[in-house]
Each structure stands twice: as C-alpha cells, then as structure tokens.
Amino acid sequence: MSVKKASVPFLIKEPRNGKDFNVSTELIHDRYNLEDRKIADILKKVKTIALIGASEKPERDSYKVLAFLINEGFQVFPINPLLAGNTIMNQKVYACLADLPTPIDMLDVFRQSKYLYDIVVEAKQANITSIWTQLGVTDAKAELLARDSGITMVVDRCPAIEIPRLKL
Questions:
Q1: Which of 54, 113, 120, 137 is 20 to 30 A from 145 (CA-CA)?
Q2: Whole-prediction pTM value?
Q3: Which percentage of the chain shows pLDDT scores above 70?
Q4: Looking at residue 107, what is its pLDDT?
Q5: Residue whose C-alpha is closest to residue 154's, from 134, 125, 140
Q6: Within 10 Å of residue 103's Cβ, how many Cβ atoms?
Q7: Facing residues of 109 across strands?
Q8: Which of 66, 62, 114 has its CA nearest to residue 90?
Q9: Which comes out higher in pLDDT, residue 135 or 51?
Q10: What are the pLDDT digits (tens) for 64-91?
Q11: Which of 132, 136, 144 lies closest to 39, judged by CA?
C-alpha cells in the first residue's frame, strides 16, 4: 500500500533577498524524512568528496569534518577561492568545482544558506548527483532545483555525525 504525502503550500522568507517564497510541506517532508537506508546507500557509494567552504583553521567545523572524511578514507578536495593553491591537511585547495582534476561523487557544503542556490547550479553543471548541506544550511529554492535536476540532497545533516551514527 502506498501513502501519498499531503502537500500544503505556505510562504517562507527567501534567505538571499528576504522576499516571500511559496513552498510546500512535501519539500519539508522530503528534507527531514530521508531514511537511514538512503543516507547509508549514498555514503557507501561515495569515494570522492568536494568540501565547499573549507577552512585552514583547526577550530572550524569544516576543518574538523575534512579531517574526519580523510581519516575515513574518502578522497576529499577542499574548495575555497580565498585559499586556492594552498594545502589543508596535505590536500590541494581549489577555487571552484570546475577546477577539480577528477569528477566527484558528493558535495559537502559549509557555506551560508544564501549561497546554496548558486552552489546547486554549479553542482548541476559539474554533474554531481549528491549534495550534503551542513547543520543549519537550508534553502528551499536550492532544494527544489536539486530535486528537479535529479540531484539527491541531504539537508541539515553532517556526514561526520551520520557515518558513526549509522555505524558505516
């Protein structure tokens, strides 16, 4: 038996410009009801990760998650245009996705929500099929674009939390 999700439209504020934006409860349901099995499947398939918003500062969460992912055996490409050409944890830092030397399986976003839509556009152009946004990073328009583009988006979650929680 299949159950159809109810979709109720409502308005939210667009983070980039403060304007009202119509969204439905279906999108919100999708955001917070990704099954553990689906999250585990994504993580098991991933070999290469681009981490947008990488920092060289050890106290930053992006630095800690970068270290975690490297220690878990992922090939991680830090992305930060201000640090491009430098290295973080012996990993060359790139300015943008287009500069990466190899295709990637997953994008992990450590940027403010207001940048997420443009990041999804860039990910779509790079044929990335999975995007993770860190805790607190959400944007309904970006999520709709990702969904409509066939990109799986894991929103408001951290792989450094999910991997141990799911015992992967």
A1: 54
A2: 0.80
A3: 80
A4: 98
A5: 134
A6: 11
A7: 52, 133
A8: 66
A9: 51
A10: 999 999 999 999 999 999 999 999 999 9
A11: 132
Question: Which two three-digit tokens encode residue 12?
Answer: 């939210």
Is the model's pLDDT at 8 over the cut of 90?
Answer: no
Mark out the alpha helices in 55-156 (DSSP H runs). 61-71, 116-125, 140-148
CB atoms within 10 A of CB 115: 17
Single-letter amino acid code for the residue at 28:
I
SS3 58: coil
Q: pLDDT digit string (tens) for 17-28?
A: 555 544 444 444
For 49, the enclosing helix (H) or strand (E) is: strand 48-52
pLDDT above 70 for 13: no
pLDDT reported for residue 35 = 84
**Length, in residues, of the chain:** 168
pLDDT at 123 over 60: yes
**Rounded CA gap, 142 and 116, in Å?**
6
In sequence order, what are the beta bridge partners of 106?
A: 49
CA pair distance 152, 139, nearest whole angstrom: 14
Between CA 123 and CA 117 the distance in angstroms is: 10
Query: What superfamily would CATH give domain 35-165?
Result: NAD(P)-binding Rossmann-like Domain (3.40.50.720)
The domain locations on the chain are: 35-165
